[in-house]
Amino acid sequence: MHIDQLIDGLPAYAKDMKLNYSTLVRQNAELSEQQLWGTLAVSAVATRCGELTAAILEEASKHLTQQVLDGAKAAAAIMGMNNIFYRFHHLSSNEKYGTMPARLRMNVMRTHGVDALDFELWSLAVSAINGCGKCIDSHEKVVREKGASEDLVLAVVRLASIVHAIGTVLDTERVAAQQEVTI
């Protein structure tokens, strides 16, 4: 399904999601097209909502090269792993874990083949969705050092939040529809 159809089909209780998506995507002033569609792609992947991910990846492929789209998917994948690992560090009261090596391969952090700032912004978006404070702090610091403004950072996080909310609505409606069938 095309992303616009998916957004237009959101239920009445999700009107804010529909309006926010429209405003943030269609009236975007802060992000380049690559940053915008890369952020939408990584955020959709991070929601784990298949319907939303398929629709956004389909549309993103019209705005991004395959290399950039693969870079965005790589950011979502590596942060899916890192957010769990480093959120554990953050939440555990045992300080020894912070001194121990991760022993997790993270080569894609250097070999992604896309603009370094964009990859870091996408990593930040996924970290926000996954709620990893340690990764949020780390990636926010890097993007700020690379010259990103706070407005740019917040634009990425806004997009991540609205995509996550849309994924929640779509999953809720799918479950509700399945319950109606089984009743």
UniProtKB/TrEMBL annotation:
Active site: C132, C135
GO molecular function, one term: disulfide oxidoreductase activity
One record GO biological process: response to oxidative stress
Keyword Nucleotide-binding: no
Enzyme class: oxidoreductase
Disulfide bond entries: C132-C135
Protein EC: 1.11.1.28
Keywords: Antioxidant, Disulfide bond, Oxidoreductase, Peroxidase, Redox-active center
Reaction catalysed by this enzyme: N(6)-[(R)-dihydrolipoyl]-L-lysyl-[lipoyl-carrier protein] + a hydroperoxide = N(6)-[(R)-lipoyl]-L-lysyl-[lipoyl-carrier protein] + an alcohol + H2O
Entries under Pfam families matching the protein: CMD
Start and end residues of each Carboxymuconolactone decarboxylase-like domain: 98-176
NCBIfam families: ahpD (TIGR00777), ahpD_dom (TIGR00778)
Family: Belongs to the AhpD family.
Function recorded in the entry: Antioxidant protein with alkyl hydroperoxidase activity. Required for the reduction of the AhpC active site cysteine residues and for the regeneration of the AhpC enzyme activity.
Name of the protein described by the UniProt record: Alkyl hydroperoxide reductase AhpD
Gene from which the chain derives: ahpD
